[in-house]
Specification:
The chain starts with a helix and ends in an 8-residue tail after the last helix. A two-stranded parallel ribbon has the order 1-2. A two-stranded antiparallel sheet has the order 3-4. Helix 7 crosses helix 9. It is mainly alpha-helical and 339 residues long. The longest helix has 21 residues. The structure holds zinc ion. Zinc ion (ZN) binds next to helix 5 and helix 7.
């Protein structure tokens, strides 16, 4: 048992064979506890009595009609954060800043459930119907000013409930001057509405006091291996890529006199940097971009492409190609998640 308790001593293989329910984890005594406290302080600073309950699960989410927040297990232990990064190339909520950013969004869902704000007429007018079915994907308009910008990938555009949660998150972020920042944006009306509702709720006890915990870690019997298998399938882009023409603008199919570099190894060498640059610029998950890059590398091999430009030039063009393809991917329906 001591082997299981000390997760940091386990190899990746040993960890992947473990079931989620057997992970000896808790929020208490970890940096997560401090972050949750900070969220509570932010709510308290506005005079709100509401404190969402939190528990560990597979991913970030707020269940339907539950005024509480599920936090992914990998944030409760550094060894699991490390495994998450290796499996998914990214740790969502891994830093204090990112973690609070996501928690503020989830707190928006939780307070919506706690006071049934979504049942109000004005909510429906501003955000749309809360009960609208969740889409498997959404097509964001990157230039829209009808929605606030908080989580990546224009997430407020995914669903009315997400729009509300994102608006709440912007509203509650300390030191964010939303009135100024969203001046002249139609989204300002949504922020003002949230501001008005939260003033009404000062000192009010929630109407929904459920402490239900959905999909708590100790109930999840799949192994970490299965969990990551599913997660990777879920994040990958679903549209059929066709890069050939773009690839031929960067690489050449003719062989040169001098010993030149093959395009596949060039891309492989810059894989990590390309992925993280595009992920930062577009808000799309690192894993989805990496999958696209894997297709590109395969295609370069099949077409026997070579690098004929300087490496720096080729890198810049590869970055543009990958960004454009990522945006196309978003437009053909990218389902990031139900955060
Ligand atoms: Zn959400």
């Amino acid at each position: 048992m001591s082997l299981v308790r000390d997760l940091s001593r386990l190899t990746d293989e040993q960890l992947l064979n473990m079931r989620l329910c057997d992970l000896p984890l808790s929020i208490e005594g970890t940096p997560l506890e401090r972050r949750v406290d900070r969220l509570y302080q932010e709510l308290h600073a506005h005079g709100l009595l509401f404190k969402p309950h939190v528990w560990l699960s597979e991913e970030w989410f707020t269940p339907d009609d539950v005024p509480g927040i599920a936090i992914p297990f990998y944030l409760a232990h550094p060894r699991l954060s490390q495994l998450e990064r290796k499996q998914m190339f990214e740790v969502e909520g891994g830093t204090e800043r990112d973690c609070l950013r996501i928690m503020r969004h989830e707190a928006g869902h939780a307070i919506d459930n706690a006071f049934h704000i979504y049942a109000r007429r004005r909510y429906r007018e501003l955000f749309g119907s809360f009960t609208r079915p969740y889409p498997n994907w959404y097509k964001p308009e990157p230039n829209s000013r009808d929605y606030v910008l908080h989580l990546p990938a224009w997430y407020a555009q995914a669903h009315p409930a997400e729009d509300f949660a994102e608006t709440f998150a912007v509203w509650i972020t300390p030191r964010l001057q939303w009135k100024k920042q969203y001046e002249d944006w139609p989204a300002l009306r949504k922020l003002e509405y949230v501001d008005q509702i939260m003033k009404e709720l000062v000192g009010q006890a929630p109407t929904n006091t459920s402490r239900e915990r959905v999909e708590e870690l100790h109930e999840i019997t799949i192994t970490l291996r299965e969990h990551y298998h599913r997660k990777r399938q879920y994040y990958a882009f679903q549209w059929p890529p066709d890069y050939d023409r773009d690839l031929l603008r960067i690489f050449s199919s003719e062989s040169h006199q001098k010993p030149d570099l093959n395009a596949a190894s060039f891309l492989r060498r810059h894989r990590r940097q390309l992925c993280s640059e595009v992920a930062k610029g577009t808000g799309v998950h690192n894993y989805a971009i990496d999958q696209m890059l894997v297709h590109l590398i395969t295609r370069c091999k099949e077409l026997k492409l070579r690098v004929s430009l300087t490496e720096e030039n080729a890198f810049q063009r590869a970055l543009v190609l990958l960004t454009v393809q990522t945006i196309n991917g978003i437009h053909s329906g990218y389902h990031r998640i139900a955060l």
